[in-house]
Design brief:
It is a single chain. The protein is mainly α and about 240 residues long. The chain has a domain of about 160 residues: Rhodopsin 7-helix transmembrane proteins (Rhopdopsin 7-helix transmembrane proteins). Helices cover about 85% and strands about 5% of the residues. It has 9 helices and 2 strands. A two-stranded antiparallel sheet has the order 1-2. Strand 1 and strand 2 form a beta hairpin. The longest helix has 30 residues. It is globular, with a radius of gyration of 22 Å. The C terminus is likely disordered.
């Protein structure tokens, strides 16, 4: 059977190639849109480094009844908050809500680590935080954040809905994987393959989706600028008329 370390090395290679391709695609975007693209390149590149170090056994340490991997922690604690925070950002919601989303994701990821390495009440609390956190995310994304998106231009609102649905679906599947893993129902090979596939889908797939739709953010900005210019023109007209009189 193929070793999990081999699966992770292959995954790290895919991340590396994906990061190079995404960087090249980002360079082809207009200058004002690259600031939205480069963070995704960094997330994918960091995932490659993190999974690569995990594959070669660097950064493994024991905690309670289990082990944690520095590479995996670094990758996940950067990627998940960023991706979910970006989905909230697209809606045009306030920074407070974006911060709440990020905090929930961090708490959920921490809950998984707790459930993974501890037994008893701590493990139960960690598992509960994942489920409760996901329910809270659904409430936010379909509640106040969706209301903020509804006030945006139609193209940006649609971009938000697609982004929200993608992250919620991918993370929902990842949570199901986590529950099965915590229950000890996966063998090492199956756990490695399925986790790497889901993480690639969430990171690289999400990045590709955003790159294909990032022009929506420019369109919104241009619409806002045009609207401000028109409003300024309307205010200027009476003043000009007064001067002529």
């Amino acid at each position: 059977m193929i070793e999990p370390s081999t699966v992770r090395l292959a995954s790290a290679g895919i991340y590396a190639v994906s990061a190079v391709v995404l960087f090249a695609l980002a360079r082809r975007k207009p200058a004002d849109l690259r600031r939205y693209c480069y963070p995704f390149v960094a997330v994918v590149a960091l995932a490659g480094v993190g999974i690569g170090t995990w594959a070669v056994g660097v950064g493994t340490f024991s905690v309670a009844n289990g082990t944690l991997e520095v590479g995996q922690l670094l990758s996940d604690y950067v990627a998940y908050p960023f991706l979910f925070g970006f989905a909230a950002f697209v809606s045009g919601v306030s920074r407070r809500y974006v911060g709440v989303v990020v905090a929930l994701i961090v708490a959920m990821r921490l809950g998984y680590d707790v459930a993974e390495v501890f037994d008893g009440a701590l493990a139960l609390a960690g598992t509960a935080s994942i489920l409760v956190g996901y329910a809270a995310l659904v409430g936010l994304y379909f509640g106040p954040i969706a209301s903020a998106a509804a006030r945006q231009p139609p193209a940006r609102e649609l971009f938000y809905k697609k982004t929200r649905n993608l992250v919620l679906f991918a993370f929902g599947v990842l949570i199901a994987w986590a529950m099965i893993q915590i229950a000890g129902l996966f063998d090492q090979f199956t756990a490695a393959v399925t986790l790497e596939y889901l993480d690639l889908l969430l990171r690289v797939g999400f990045a590709g989706f955003v790159f294909a739709n990032v022009e929506t953010l420019a369109t919104e900005a241009e619409d806002g600028s045009d609207g401000n210019a028109a409003e300024a023109g309307q205010h200027a007209t009476p003043a000009s008329g007064t001067g002529a009189d």
